[in-house]
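FIELD: query
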Amino acid sequence: MKANRSARSYLPLALAAVVLTALPAAWARDDAGAQRLEILPQEWQLAGFENSLDLSGIAAATKTQCLVGSDEMFYIQPGVIDAANQRIDSKRPIALPLASTGKKQEIDIEGVAYSSDDHAYYVVGSHGLGKKKGDFQPDRHSIYQVPVDPVTGQVKKEGIRRTSLLPWLEKTPEVKASLKQPLQQNGFNIEGLTWSGGKLWIGLRAPNQDGKGLVLELSPGQLFGGGKPSAMTIHEVSIGKGRGFREIAAVRDGFILLTGNASSEASKKIPISAAPGPDTRFELLYWNGSDTTATNLGRLPQNGGKGEALLVLEDVADHIDLLVIFDGLPGGEPVAVRIHR
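FIELD: result
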């Protein structure tokens, strides 16, 4: 990894854990050669968030201040983290500027990241078509810069800026053909966002290209600096046919990737889907940010929801603790997970 990658903000968790599954021999191992992914016993709660069945992104500016997004809303929700009680409480929502004036306004927020360089959150829409009707909605093609007070870590309501990735995507050969195509048919769709080393890293749910998932790398200055669109860096990561990235989270030596189906389920308007089966298998992978392969860390337990968002709680020499938030479950029903290096 690049030497200038910044570590994330971390939260302490207790050491007790329950073994979930064994890991392949590729990334980290202890003296005995064992590797494992564990479910931690803490029962975290996201409390008071609107549209709590559809929480889709989260990032933290400090140990106590975070920002949460929902894919069914046009506003963001700051949160206060209480690590001692494993609780994140919602504060008053903040509306984001929109490109349209229609009756139903939806950004389809799919990723939230925090940049310590810029003292700002970044919030991205899916940049895809509507999943049910396959219609183009301008607000989905949005990315926002949300300023943060560098002292308190709290969101500033003034100074929020909006732009779109679409002009950059249209100049990127690897994804151009999939733009404005239905997600059921491998159409372009963003689902993950993180920040590391001065760059935004964008995980694509689709397209999956011959078993490879795509991660886009782009400087925030390119987006919000007023310059002309230029090509962005494209990373291809082998994850298997029909798989896509649901989230990406930066850690000290790379990234944790959350994967699920690349294509969405069929709808009345789009009755045929390229999905290989039900979207019930969600796995965590480690990726160093440059290779074309990633290490499969293990499968998350099935709980009726869809793995959707990751928050790094702690990142130390021998392990990473993550909070996994699930779409379709009240309050995201967070699950705390430990990855042993």
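FIELD: remark
Residues 18-275+305-335 form a domain with the Neuraminidase fold (CATH 2.120.10).
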